[in-house]
Structures are given as structure tokens and as C-alpha cells.
Design goal:
The chain is mainly alpha-helical and about 280 residues long. Helices cover about 65% and strands about 5% of the residues.
């Protein structure tokens, strides 16, 4: 199950999203996430969900790969939905079902059901859009785009290049560490370790032989990367050039204009329809 996590992976392709400027993709992704939290009803949220679905189709990323990106937050989604479903009460709520559990009575209300579904769709849209960013942008282009966007901060003596490189390396090594974890777990299972059954305390103890070599491997990879960067005379100064230059083209401006239209639609739908939250 560990190896099926796809956070930080890049899917090679030539879709319209792959060809977009990395700076524009970063800005539009951030703006999309902000707009998601501005949604007040199912109409505005449905508009953004439809927009996210269109982006997924334009990216040409396999559906199975997109679905696997939801697995790391599946338990969080379920936990959040259950809390909203059971603990949304008040004078204006409409009970749908009452479940007697020992000394308590769990009441499921219509408002709680609406908020649970609303929150779930919102989280799934966030994960989908953020995953599309990493699926359609190489780590090197992410580094360059982030560095260009934060370049004005360099006048304040902020180490923008170093910060961008740190962010990209952290994102890049997530799949590597996941693959390393899967290999270590397979090796421990072949030696008779039981990692999937037993009480919570036993499972935690069983993972100690996995965590120790994982940390050793992570520090070794970090040291090797540091030596490789030093041997290539890497510096975090702003005088470095980039092999691939970023240029904004007409499709990038069209994408920004489309997002502005979506934002206007969200504002209009929030104004003319009843809010859920």
C-alpha cells in the first residue's frame, strides 16, 4: 500500500497542462485553493468541482494514478465527515436518523449530512488540483518557477534560490522515501516480522526495525546529494542561469482569464443561493 502513494510524482506527457508555464501553474493552483474556501453552497462548489474535473481530463493523467493520490488523506476525509455528520446540532437542525448507542443517542441531521458532503468534496478538489500541479510539472521546472515568483524577496536578502531548492528536493524525495519504505517493509516481512496485525502498541514496536534503516538511508541520500552538489560547484546565488527559460504564452493568459471567470461565477452563486456553511 505504501508504494501506491503518488505524492510528488511527475507523469511525463504533452498535454496543455504540461506545456503551461510553471509560474502560471503555481499561481493558478494557489488561486484555485483560495477560491475553494470561498464557496458557500453546493452550486459554487459544483462549479469548482466541474472545473477540477476538466483540468484532470486536459492533463491526460491516467485515472488510476489520480485516484491513488487520494489514498493518503482517505482516513482524514472519513474522520472529518463523521465529525460533521454527528456533531452538527442546533435549534434549526432537521434530524434524519437517531441511533441509540449505550447511554447516548447519536443524531444525524440534514444539515450535518450536507456539511459532511460539502467538506468531503472540498478536500477532494484540493488534493486533485495540487496533485495535477506535480503530475504535470517536473521538479526542475517547479524550482525555477518558484524561484522566479519569489525573486522580488531577494532584494530583502531572503535566500530565494536556497528556499526554492529545499522545497523542490523535499517534494522530489517523497516518492523515493516511499519506495525505500516499501522495500524495507518487504525485507522485514521476509524475515518474519508482523507489521499488519496485533494491537496498536505492537504495531508501533514492529515498525521500529523499519524506521531505523529508513532514517539511515535518508541521511545517507542527503549526504550523497550534498557531495554531488558541491562537486558541481552549486551555489544558491541569484547569478545562476536556467537551461530552460520560462515564457508566458497565450494559453497561459487564457487559463488565467478562465479562472477569473470561474471566480466571478463563484461570487455570483454565493450571492444568489443559500449558504451551506
Amino acid at each position: 500500500m505504501i508504494k501506491e502513494i503518488t505524492i510528488g510524482q511527475y507523469y511525463a506527457g504533452s498535454s496543455p497542462l504540461h506545456r503551461m508555464d510553471a509560474r502560471m501553474k503555481l499561481l493558478l493552483t494557489l488561486a484555485f485553493m483560495v477560491v475553494i474556501f470561498l464557496c458557500k453552497n453546493f452550486f459554487s462548489l459544483g462549479l469548482l468541482a466541474a472545473c477540477a474535473a476538466v483540468l484532470a481530463l486536459l492533463s491526460r493523467v491516467p485515472g488510476g494514478m489520480l485516484l491513488r493520490s487520494f489514498r493518503p488523506i482517505l482516513m482524514l476525509v472519513v474522520f472529518t465527515s463523521v465529525l460533521n455528520l454527528l456533531y452538527t446540532n442546533g435549534a434549526d437542525t432537521h434530524p434524519l436518523l437517531e441511533l441509540p448507542v449505550w447511554r447516548w443517542t447519536l443524531v444525524i441531521t440534514r444539515e450535518g449530512l450536507f456539511i459532511a458532503v460539502f467538506t468531503t468534496v472540498r478536500i477532494l478538489c484540493l488534493i486533485l488540483v495540487s496533485s495535477l500541479l506535480t503530475y504535470t510539472t517536473t521538479p526542475s521546472m517547479l524550482t525555477t518557477g518558484l524561484e522566479r515568483l519569489l525573486s522580488p524577496l531577494a532584494r530583502l536578502r531572503v535566500p530565494v534560490s536556497v528556499f526554492a531548492m529545499m522545497m523542490t528536493l523535499a517534494l522530489r524525495f517523497v516518492p523515493t522515501l516511499i519506495e525505500e519504505t516499501d522495500r524495507i517493509m518487504s525485507a522485514q516481512k521476509s524475515r518474519g516480522s508482523n507489521l499488519e496485525t496485533g494491537s496498536l502498541l505492537k504495531r508501533i514496536k514492529a515498525f521500529v526495525p523499519v524506521l531505523v534503516p529508513l532514517f539511515v538511508s535518508a541521511f545517507r541520500r542527503a549526504a550523497e546529494l550534498a557531495y554531488a552538489m558541491e562537486s558541481r560547484c552549486y551555489t544558491g546565488s541569484g547569478t545562476r542561469t536556467s537551461l530552460k527559460q520560462l515564457r508566458l504564452r497565450l494559453p497561459d493568459y487564457l487559463a488565467a482569464f478562465c479562472l477569473l471567470l470561474v471566480m466571478a461565477g463563484v461570487v455570483a452563486l454565493n450571492r444568489f443561493f443559500t449558504a451551506v456553511i
